[in-house]
Amino acid sequence: MRKSGFVYIMTSPIRNVLYVGVTSELPGRIWKHKNKYYPDSFTAKYNCTVLVYYQNFDDIVDAIAEEKRIKKGNRKQKEDLIISMNPEWKDLTDSIF
Q: How many CB atoms are closer than 10 A to CB 94?
């Protein structure tokens, strides 16, 4: 049985930092970012608490490959990806619960 996965992008409230991640359990992972569950993590340090992009994959292997592809891109490419789904950069957290 395959395990599904999500690729997601978090940003800070002032949009100065982007974080690209992958998980098999998006609501729980976003909760951890927002609540700074790991206080020494990158997202806690740079206040990445706003979910601005996510994509679901049927297979976690595909999600991991997409995460790697996105991470290789430059900031403009990441911003374009966010805008394609969320042109106003709204926090999408409510849409995943």
A: 8
User: How many whole angstroms separate alpha carbon 92 and alpha carbon 50?
Assistant: 8
Q: Which amino acid is at 22?
A: V
Q: What is the rounded distance in angstroms from the CA atom of residue 96 to the CA atom of residue 47?
A: 20
What integer pLDDT is reported at residue 97 of this predicted model? 81
Q: Is 26 exposed, middle or buried (0-12, 13-18, 19+ CB in 10 A)?
A: buried
CB 59 within 8 A of CB 5: yes
CATH of 5-96, one of 3.40.50.720, 3.40.1550.10, 3.40.1440.10, 3.40.1000.70: 3.40.1440.10
Helices 60-72 and 75-85, interaxial angle, to 10°?
Answer: 130
For residue 83, pLDDT over 80 is answered with: yes
Q: What is the pTM of this model?
A: 0.96
